[in-house]
Amino acid sequence: DVVMTQSPLSLPVTLGQPASISCRSSQSLVYSDGNTYLNWFQQRPGQSPRRLIYGVSNRDSGVPDRFSGSGSGTDFTLKIDRVEAEDVGVYYCMQGSHWPRTFGQGTKLEIK
Amino acid sequence: EVQLLESGGGLVQPGGSLRLSCAASGFTFSSSAMSWVRQTPGKGLEWVSTITDSGGRTYYADSVKGRFTISRDNSKSTLYLQMNSLRAEDTAVYYCAKTSHFQFWGQGTLVTVSS
Questions:
Q1: Helix (H) or strand (E) holding B98
Q2: Largest CA distance in chain B
Q3: What strands lie across the sheet with A19-25, from one edge to the other?
Q4: Which long-range contacts link B7-11 to residues 24+ away (Cβ below 8 Å)?
C-alpha cells in the first residue's frame, strides 16, 4: 500500500499568517494516464470532510483562493496564504492513483 | 446541490450484520462511481470500498474484504454497504462519498460494534 506521510501533525498559526502542510507518498503518484491523483481534504470540528484540492493543484468549487496545492511525484504541499478562523480543523492528503486509496494521518490546524 | 444521506448505522454485537444505505441526489447517480470511507473515533480516515458507475467493478480494503459487500441501485440512486461478521475494530463513522476521489461526502452514520 502507498503510505502517505504528513508533516507537521500539529500546526498552530496566527490569524492572517501563512500555513503550509507537507505530504509525502511512499511511491510516485503519477498514474498511467500521466495525471497525478493527489487530493487534499479539510475536516472542520464536528463536520464531514470536504475536498479542497484535486489533482495536486485544482481547487474545488467554492474553495477560497487562499488555498493552493503544489508538488509532483512523491512530494506535495498545501498552502494557506492567510489563515482565517474558519480554517481551523484537520487537513488530510489522500492519493487516488493506486488501490487501495490511502490517506495521510492528518494535520491539525489551530489558531495561536 | 449534491446531497448524500447515509442511514442504517447503530449498535451491533460482534459477529453481527448491518446494512448501510446512502441516498443520493443532485447529480446523475448512474454516471458516478461511489465509495465508502470510515473514520474511527478520534482518528483518521480509512477508505473502505468503491463501486464503479454501472456496478460492474468493486474494490475493497483488505481489512473488510470477504466481510463487506458494496452495491448500488441506480434506479433508486442509492448506494449500499452490507457488513457481515462485524468486529470491534469496525466501529466508526461511515461516510459515503461521490467518486473514487471523494468529491462530495455525506454526513456519516455511526456504527458501533460492542457486546
A1: strand B92-98
A2: 40
A3: A4-7, A19-25, A75-80, A67-72
A4: B7/B109, B8/B109, B9/B93, B9/B94, B9/B109, B9/B110, B9/B111, B9/B112, B10/B110, B10/B111, B10/B112, B11/B112, B11/B114
Q: Do A94 and B108 touch (CB under 8 A)?
A: no
Nearest CA in chain A to B94: A48
Instruction: Identify the CA nearest to B55 among candidates B76, B37, B38, B31.
Output: B31
How far apart CA B45 and CA A75 sit, in angstroms, is 20
Cα angle vertex B60, ends A106, B95, to 5°?
50
Each of the 115 residues of chain B gets a pLDDT tens digit; together they read 999 999 999 999 999 999 999 999 999 999 999 999 999 977 789 999 999 999 999 999 999 999 999 999 999 999 999 999 999 999 999 999 998 899 999 999 999 999 9
CB contact under 8 A, B47 and A49: no
Name which of B21, B26, B30 is nearest B75 in CA terms.
B30
Residue A106 contacts B where some CB pair is shorter than 8 Å: yes
Residue type, B2: V
